[in-house]
Amino acid sequence: MSAIEKFYEEYDEWSRLEHHRMEFEITKKALDAYIPDGATVLDVGGGPGRYSIYLASKGHKVTLVDLSEKHVRQAQEFAREAGVTLAGAIQGNALDMDGLPLCESYDAVLCMGPLYHLHREEDRKRSLEQCLKRLKPGGILIASFISAYAPIIDSIKKFPEEIEAERASLLNYITDGRNYDGEGFTDAYFIRPDDVEPFMTSFQVTTLRFMATEGFGSLAEERLNQLNDGQFKAWVDTLYEIAHHRVVLGCCEHLLYIGRKG
Prior knowledge:
Elements: H1 3-10, H2 13-19, H3 21-34, E1 40-44, H4 50-57, E2 61-66, H5 69-82, E3 88-91, E4 106-111, H6 121-133, E5 135-147, H7 150-158, H8 163-175, E6 178-179, E7 188-191, H9 193-200, E8 205-212, H10 221-225, H11 229-241, H12 246-249, E9 254-261
Helix pairs in contact: 3-11, 4-5
């Protein structure tokens, strides 16, 4: 079992987005805006199915693929509990999806996890190539990244008093980007926001939107989560409107790229 599989076998990924509500709601808003009605969707690295189940509830035909056997099992269980049907829930590796059709058969492909768990650029490229093989011409590709500034933001929120000991490693993420198992997370690659679009457009993809998924809300999560539904929705709508502004991209932890296959 890889370090990544082991981490997620022990980690409660399903509950994570209950705390990170702004990330979840803004991402759903983007999915609704860019995925056409009644689409066939492939969710690569879909975890326990948060987004797959949401999209299935909106009438899309969704197939989930994830490295973790636990996540695949959870996705099936949570889908049943939600009263929706997934077209498939498959244990598989984003670097080698030979068990899935190679033909261009999906209207949208989500790659919202694998790219920030791959240290080597050649592996990140291979993962995207695997996704694009399965995407129809003109189809929508949606990819997630963790910002290289995310560890700094997380440190400010959780343990700012440790800056003297952590300063060098925090700054190292800006130049290196790699995190190894045992350093607070699992194997991960954190990317500088300015490097995302050049990387993505090196493929046969046209940028539709590059955005933050929590934006300025990142530093005020606890306060935002305490708001009533109307207030929270107003912040979702506000932060979504400015999510593509360059200054906002430098202040968030999670990044979302939306492109169209040429």
